[in-house]
Amino acid sequence: MRKFDIEKTKNITITILTGIADVLDEGHELFSYEAYKRSVYYQEGDPRQHTKWYYNHLKSIEHRGYIGIDRKNRSIELTAKGKLKLIEVSDPKTRDGKWRMLSWDIPEELKNKRQQFCRAIKRLGYKQVQKSLWACPFPKADQVDLIINELGIGKYVAYLRVDKTDIENYLNKLFKK
Questions:
Q1: Residue 145 belongs to what domain range?
Q2: Residue 100: beta bridge partners?
Q3: C-alpha separations of 75 from 32, 46, 56, 142 in Å
Q4: What is the CATH number for 21?
Q5: 3-state SS of 83-139?
Q6: Tens of pLDDT, residues 76-114
Q7: For 125-176, how does the pLDDT look when each residue is reduced to its tens digit (9 = 90+)?
Q8: Residue 53 backbone class (left: φ over 0; alpha: ψ -120 to 50; beta: rest)
Q9: Within this chain, do residues 38 and 105 fall inside the same structural domain, yes or no?
Q10: Domain total of the chain
Q11: Which of 56, 86, 116 is the C-terminal boundary of a domain?
Q12: Does residue 8 share a domain with residue 79?
């Protein structure tokens, strides 16, 4: 796939996930799959073209684990992975003066989960401070519990949110890059 196509697909994914999240933020636990298809159908242009287009992207997003579609109950829900994707693409520049720190000791038999965890926290904005210590100054990093719960590694991970640390100068330099 060409770079342009990859970026376009990412943008479409984020647009669809954001739309679903907006509806769910209004207090709905589940989003009606049928209502979503109808809203897409009545957009401007040839309804057959964009309905097929959205449907294909919706299936792709479901396949990647960002949403769950319950065809029996005709509903869509945002999965933890979908929520994390939206958090990852949110503005990472906002700071609140606190440091979020992670330390973990995930056993060797869970090596794949450890690697997944490491990749996911990097996308949230965490950076490695020492071999077993990672830090992040951004409030969105508080959502790390979604990753921990999704991977089932809670008993191996320590999460701290601190106001002050003796390595603050080092951390500030680390996050100026």
A1: 94-174
A2: 136, 161
A3: 4, 25, 17, 28
A4: 1.10.10
A5: HHHHHHHCCCCCCCCCEEEEEECCCHHHHHHHHHHHHHHHHHCCEEEECCEEEECCH
A6: 788 888 888 888 777 767 788 999 999 999 999 999 999
A7: 899 999 889 999 988 888 898 899 989 999 999 999 999 999 999 999 999 8
A8: alpha
A9: no
A10: 2
A11: 86
A12: yes
Q: State how far the Cα of 6 lies from the Cα of 120, in Å rounded to an integer.
A: 19
Residue in this structure with the two tokens 């994914």, named with its chain if needed: 13
118: β partners: none
Dist. CA 62–CA 42, nearest whole Å: 22
Residue 113 and residue 144 in one domain: yes
Look at residue 92 in the predicted model and tell me its pLDDT.
64
Output the six-digit token pair for 110. 């869970």
Tokens of residue 36, six digits: 């979503």
Query: CA 45, 51, 55 angle in degrees (round to 5)?
Result: 150
Closest alpha carbon to 56 in 9, 3, 1, 4: 9
At 132, the amino acid letter reads S
| 163, 121 Cβ separation under 8 angstroms | no
